[in-house]
C-alpha cells in the first residue's frame, strides 16, 4: 500500500505462500511496544516506531478505526526489579510510574508503569489493507518463492518481506525464531492490559477476545502449542487476574517471531546479467513487526523508488 501511494503508476503484486488469517501478523496481539529487536539501532526503532504510532493514531481518530482493527488500550507494565524508563515513554499516552497504591493490586511486583497504547489487530488490519490494495489496482498471487532471481524476468523490483521465511529464502542464518505461544480467551470483563515483563506473562484485551501470553523461546521452531507452556501461561495469567479462571478458552496459537541481530531494511542487487534483480529487504522485526510496520514500509517504499530510478526500465511481462 505504501508503494502504491508513493510511486505513481506503479503496478504492485503481493506474492505470498500464506495470506490472512494464516500469517504471524494475524496471531500477534498487535500491541504497540518495541521489543525483541536486539541490536537494531535505537534511533531507527524510534523513527519507525513513532511513524507507525502516528499512522495508527490517525486511523484510531478516523471513522475506519473499527474496520482497521485499531484500538486504544490502557494498563500496567509490571516489574520485579527497578527499571529505567523505557525509550518509548514519550511516545505513548499518559506514561506514569506506578504508585504504592497501584502496586497493592499486584503482589510480587515492586515497580512499573501505567500507560495508554495503540493496538492494531492483524486479523482485522490485514484484510482491511488488502481491500485498499486491490482497490488501488494491486494484484495478488499465491505461491512459495524459492529463489529471488526466479522473479527477475517478471518484476523490476522485489521487496523481500517474508518474516521468518526470509532466512531460508536468502540464506540468512541470522534469522531465528523466538517462539511465542498464547491463548485467546473470552473475558470481556478484562479491560486493562497487564504485562509482567520479567516472567513474560501478559494479558492483552483486543476487540473480540483477550490474549494471554506467553513464551519467548529462542531457536524453537515448534508451531504446536506445548502443554507445559499452556500450563505456565494459564497459571501465570490467572495469578495476575484470578477471575480469568472462569473464562472460556477460544483457542491456543503459536507464532514464530522473526528475530535477527537487527532489522534488515536495505537495497541489494542480486544475480547477474538477465537474472539480475533489484531487491529491497524488509525483515527481521522480532516481537515488534506491528509496532514498526508503517515506518518500515515507508522506508521500503523510498528504497523501491530509488531502485526504480536507478535502473533503466525495460518492459517486462
Ligand atoms: C505470540 C506473538 C505475539 C506478538 N505480539 C506482537 C505485538 O503485540 N506487537 C507487535 O508489534 N508484534 C508482535 N509480535 C511480532 C509480530 O507478529 C511479527 O514481528 C510480525 O508478524 C512480522 O511480520 P512479517 O510481515 O515480517 O511476517 P509474517 O506476518 O510472518 O508474514 C510473512 C509473509 O511472508 C510469506 N512468506 C514467507 N516466506 C515466503 C516464501 N518463501 N515465498 C512466498 N511467501 C513467503 C508468509 O506466507 C507470510 O505471508 C508477536 C509475535 C508473536 C509470535
Ligand atoms: O509484550 C508486548 O509488548 C506484547 C506482546 C508482544 O509483543 C509479543 O509477544 O511479542
Automatic annotation (TrEMBL):
Q: Which GO molecular function, any one, fits this protein according to its record?
A: FAD binding
Entry GO terms, CC:
cytosol; peroxisomal matrix
Sites where the protein binds D-dopa = 197, 202, 257, 287
Q: What cofactor does this one take?
A: FAD
PROSITE patterns the record matches: DAO (PS00677)
Q: Which Gene3D superfamilies match?
A: D-Amino Acid Oxidase, subunit A, domain 2, NAD(P)-binding Rossmann-like Domain
EC? 1.4.3.1
The entry's localization annotation reads: Cytoplasm, Cytosol; Peroxisome matrix
Residues covered by the FAD dependent oxidoreductase domain: 1-303
Q: Which reaction does it catalyse?
A: D-glutamate + O2 + H2O = 2-oxoglutarate + H2O2 + NH4(+); D-aspartate + O2 + H2O = oxaloacetate + H2O2 + NH4(+)
The primary location reported for this protein is cytoplasm
Question: What GO biological process terms does the UniProt entry carry, in alphabetical order?
Answer: D-amino acid catabolic process
Q: Which SUPFAM superfamilies match?
A: FAD-linked reductases, C-terminal domain, Nucleotide-binding domain
Record: residues binding FAD: 24-25, 145, 286-291
* Keyword Flavoprotein in annotation: yes
Q: Which UniProt keywords apply?
A: Cytoplasm, FAD, Flavoprotein, Oxidoreductase, Peroxisome, Signal
- What does this protein do, in the record's words? Selectively catalyzes the oxidative deamination of acidic amino acids. Suppresses the level of D-aspartate in the brain, an amino acid that can act as an agonist for glutamate receptors. Protects the organism from the toxicity of D-amino acids. May also function in the intestine.
Q: Which family does it belong to?
A: Belongs to the DAMOX/DASOX family.
Name of the protein = D-aspartate oxidase
**Top-down, what is the taxonomic lineage of the species of origin?**
Eukaryota, Metazoa, Chordata, Cephalochordata, Leptocardii
